Amino acid sequence: MTSILHLDASARPGLAGKDEHGSHSRNLSLRFVSQWRARRPQDPITYRDIGQTPPSIISHDWIASSFTPEARREPWMRDTLAESDRLVDELIAADVLVIGTPLYNFGMPAALKAWIDQVVRPGRTVDIDESNLLDPYIPRLADRPRHLVILTARGGIGFDAGGEMAHMNHLEPNLITALGFIGITRVHQIAIEGQEFGGELLAASVAQALDKVDALVSELQHSLQAERVAEPA
Prior knowledge:
The protein has seven helices and seven strands; from the N terminus they run βαβαααβαβββαβα. The chain has helices at residues 24-39, 60-66, 75-80, 82-93, 110-119, 172-181, 199-230, and strands at residues 4-8, 45-49, 96-102, 126-128, 137-139, 147-153, 186-192.
């Protein structure tokens, strides 16, 4: 089976087209998991709506606890890291990480950044080799193939690579860097643009993105099956 971890980061709780001020990124992520489930109902899907229930922002106590070796942690340190441990466990178990997120002020929503800060953890998702100062970081989630699916909604246009506004897009590059740092390097991106303009421009972008989601689900399911067949017995 293939395990899916599905995150929604939009501050908008509803769905575009159904609710006033509904979310386009939620529509994309819902389309992805619905299509996946329709074809592979046996695959487990874990869902977190971090847009409505944001993870905690890391604190001084979190940092002190995280950088203390596990054997030396005091009970309060373990309590401080309990939320992070749950989020990390979900991520480690996932074969496909699906993130539905808007572009807010040229970057990711604060809730998604809080999640990133909770799961990039020394000793859990990355190791540090202090003997190798030039390249000390060892990604622990590179132990098996994991896929990252970023499903984005943007108010403006031209934020894709090569676009006129690409230099102002710090959402996907940030996610790709942070999650690649811990070993998730197979990346797939689909975006809706033109939400602030609406009309035919937005409608065309939505239709194109939904078609791309359907194609990506089929492609990923086939590639994951091929990867499993190719694994040594």
